[in-house]
Amino acid sequence: MSLDVLVVGATGQQGGAVARELLGRGHVVRALTRKPDSAAAVELAGLGAQVVPGDLAVAASIEEAAHGADAAFLLSDSFDAGTDFEVTAGIGAIDGVRRAGVGHIVYTSAASADRDTGVPHFDSKAAIERYLRENRVPHTIVAPAFFMENRFFGLRRTDDGWLLPTPMPAARALQQIAVADIAGFVRHAVEHRDDVLGERFDIAGDDLTGASAAAILEQVIGEPVRYAAISPDAPFLGPDLSAMFRYIDRVGFAADIAALRADFPDVGWHTFEEWARPQDWRHIGAKPIKAVPTA
């Protein structure tokens, strides 16, 4: 059965993946974006999405866009405007969707955000989760671990190969997930509302150390890749990301990967290697660097 789904942030990384996944399964997608004329919005329109102008920070625009939809996918972000704004905007968007009469919200949070981590952008998402629960809003919470796509931002060329710097020890395992798998899980939640209503899922597709990730990338790229553990207190990270990497090193994520694969096989889970092999790594890390401060 085709469903009508509002996708907030449809031109972003997660929202775009969710929109494409839903369109690929024959669902109607209302792609809400602040920039309906952007290249990403035009691309989604070409795939059959209904591009709708709107802003997460303006609850009235969310409400207007959501009228008549069967479900809504919501995400929130603190990195541009801060965690206080994230909570305010997220709650406002929930209220807008609820006033529109939508019967199911799928909200993307973060793995372990419900565990009092002390990580600012986890705690802000936890506040939005509490609002959903305490106000009995029909919802499902999807909480992804570390994005595999984050490796694009870290990998750098060096004089003698590649360097993979990360603010974690080389031997520390890190649960991670491909954005495509987040989209697959959201799609499953939308299609199976009654099975997941009121539930929260920490999701990940693989669990491997930084050294293992570097070894896999070396095989995939065909050139030497060296892992470098940088300090989680490196100034360029900022206090929020520093707190996140310290938490991951100290505690770590706790998704049950085996159970996820068994219970939700239609998601199409990727290991890190399965995700990495089809990627185009040629444009990554074009600016050579000679050294990274290690922890």
From TrEMBL:
CDD domains: NmrA_like_SDR_a. InterPro entries: NAD(P)-bd_dom_sf, NmrA-like, NmrA-like_oxidored. Residues 4-233 form the NmrA-like domain. Keywords: NADP. It comes from the Bacteria. PANTHER family: NITROGEN METABOLITE REPRESSION PROTEIN NMRA FAMILY MEMBER, NMRA LIKE REDOX SENSOR 1-RELATED. Belongs to the NmrA-type oxidoreductase family. This is NmrA-like domain-containing protein. It comes from Amycolatopsis camponoti.
